[in-house]
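User: structure tokens for this one?
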Amino acid sequence: MTSTMSETKDSDRADAKAQDKPRDKKKSKKDAGGPDDGRRKLKKKFYESELVRLQIELVKLQEWIKHRSLRVVVIFEGRDAAGKGGVIKRITQQLNPRICRVVALATPTEREKTQWYFQRYVAHLPAAGEMVLFDRSWYNRAGVERVMGFCTEQEYQEFLRSCPEFERMLIRSGILLIKYWFSVSDEEQERRFHQRNHDPVKRWKLSPMDMESRRRWVEYSRCKDEMFSHTDIKQAPWFVVEADDKKRARLNCIHHLLGQFQYEDLTPAPVELPPRQQEKGYVRPPITDQTFVPEVY
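Assistant:
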């Protein structure tokens, strides 16, 4: 599949118009969970088959990035529990981690706090033939650091001035920069917080910072608006993903990401496996000499 940005924008406009139409309570063919269904959650069968199809395209894109020695940076930002991690997981699920890697930096160390603000992010930028997915990025300064008071007013204003120039510099150097903002309603975020709180395998996701961001919803909204006004630049615009429906958000984001490239199918052809070496003169050691994992299951 070879997609273009113009085709993606036309599709996005069509989806927006469909969402503006009043809801029809009568069932139709869209109830089957087709790609143009903007009102109901996708059917599981359609979601899974479409995800597999898009992941095959991601493998093709991976080979194209490697073949053309491209350097790609994809930024994922948004509210807590907006679904950034979910889409990153689906993007990387079938890809080579040596080509596509995820960067999710922890709180800066005392030494890193004294560096140029962008310095620790620069160290993770891609080399030729690589794609880097930032699970949160330098935009921490315009969000959590601003709201929680982790930076001074002077540092914040300097970020708003220097960030667009920093990104233009990356683009001039040949890096392809794509930025996604995952938008989730306060009601849906609240529902996901409660869901995480009652799920022992997801409870670790509820950090004290998440709880504080929940309390400061309006402050985060104001910061997001100001951030967009300064950093939604022509060379690197923000693409907003409606994320109240996780499955739909994942498919839409992956489809859009693919649409940012004019790639060709360079999937390697099946190889002919050579014959295995004959076991001449080889004697296996006694099986009792090895320590095995207990077969509990």
